[in-house]
Every structure is written in structure tokens, then in C-alpha cells.
Amino acid sequence: MAMTSLTWNYKSSYHLIACGIDAERVDRFIPYTAGDEHPMPFVFSEEEIRHCKKLDYPEKGFCAAFCSKEALFKALSRPYNFPECELFFCGDDAWQDLKLSTSMCNENRIHSAHARIQFFFYPSYMECLSAVYVFRE
Amino acid sequence: MVDIDKKTEQEIRDLIYEYFSEECDVNTEDITDDTDIIEELEGDSLMLLALLEMVRKKYGLGIELKTLGNHLMKKPADTVGQVVELTMAVVKYGDDIVNMEL
Fold it and tell me: What is the CATH number for A26?
């Protein structure tokens, strides 16, 4: 799936159908970075965990993935089913594609979903904000 | 369906009260069944997910988040008492929770 949201404009064949937003403190995800256990299988897939644990700051990866999933389900006004959506965090201030399950795309007639991830630094903590845009063909 | 005795019911209640007390930095004595998790304890979805994960692990449950989500659409859990009820129902009925008139 090609990245579309960064270059999206009114001539695009994709229609923006929903957007959602979520923010969390990054330090809340520190407990999930240690140990061999699978943290929160309700929320993160095996691949996401492997990916995040390889990052220099795994908590940022977990936080970005969580915020993006929550923002997506808010946008769609659907009950949370986080395993249907994955995000492999690739860096600060980046547009990223969300990887959605086929059933989720078919049920909601979604072409693609993209997250704009930003981090905000405060004196004693860091916050991640994810804005998710959902497109239909 | 799993039968839960009075001792397990009390264990679940204590677990939830202690969890919110610790996470929200509030004395257990200040929490009641009517305490609103978002308004009064400043709780959020991540807190609830972490609690459900803990319960799932402790009681060896295989329930999916989607099932819980569908159940919560019908019967929201805004207060500590409602979370206690939800948790007991999850332990008792597992994935069948969506078919139950609770």
C-alpha cells in the first residue's frame, strides 16, 4: 500500500472518511519494554512487540502504536479490536501507514489509514500524539 | 460457564479496588462502587485495558477484546462497581458474555 496522506489533495481518488486523535504519556509504556513476556496481547501483536523492542526507545514505539490504534477506533466509532490494526513505529514526526486486517478493511470499506505521530516534550515527561486519517476508495 | 464462589468474588473486588488505588494514587477507603473512573479517579482506557489484561492472566481467560468491546457498547462500565461486575461476568462467562442479558 502506497503512502497517500502526505500527498493527498482534492484530486485524489481516495476519500477521507474519518479522522481520530489520541495522546498518551510515553512513560506509561516503560513497564512493557522489559522482560520476555508478551505485554498486552489485547493490544500489541507479536510482530509489533518484536519491532518495538528493537528500537532505541521501545516505549516510544509502544506508545505510538497504542495511540494510533485508539485514534483509529475512535475515528470509526467501533468497539476497540486492537489486534486488527498494527503500527510499526519508524520515527518522530512521521507519517506512517497503519497495517489493517483484511476483514477490517472489507467490513468498513477502508482503503487505507495513516497516522501522523508527534512527540511533545515537557519538563518532566514526554507525550505522544497520533492523528489518524482513514481513506476510502 | 465457570461458577465463582464468594471467596473469588471478594478476591476480584479487592483486586480491582487495590488496582485503582495504586494506579490513581487514592486510598482504597476513598473508593466506592459508585466512584466514577474517569471523572473522579482520572482513569482512562489504557488503565482499564491493563486491568483486564491482569485479570485475563490471573484467571487464565482467553476472552478477546472485540467481545468485551461489543459488551461494553451495550453495558458501559463507568464506575468501579460496574468494572467489578464486568470482571466477574468476564471470569464467569468468558466469550459468551455477549450473549448474556446482564
Answer: 3.90.470.20
Q: CB–CB of A79 and B49 under 8 A?
A: no
| CA atoms of A11 and B93, how far apart (whole Å) | 51
Task: Determine the 3-state secondary structure of A103 from DSSP.
Answer: helix
ipTM above 0.85, yes or no: no
Residue of B nearest to A25 (CA): B46
Reply yes or no on whether the pLDDT at A5 is more than 90.
no
Contact in structure between B83 and B51 (CB atoms under 8 Å):
yes
Domain count for chain A: 1
User: Which residue range is the domain that position A31 belongs to?
Assistant: 12-136
Asked if residue A7 is part of any domain, the answer here is: no
Residues 6 or more apart in contact with residue A102 via CB below 8 angstroms? none
User: What CATH fold (topology level) applies to the domain B6-97?
Assistant: 1.10.1200
Contacts of B66 in chain A (CB under 8 A): 79-81, 84
Residue A6 falls within a domain, yes or no?
A: no
Segment A39-84, tens digit of pLDDT: 788 899 999 999 999 999 999 999 999 999 999 999 998 888 898 9
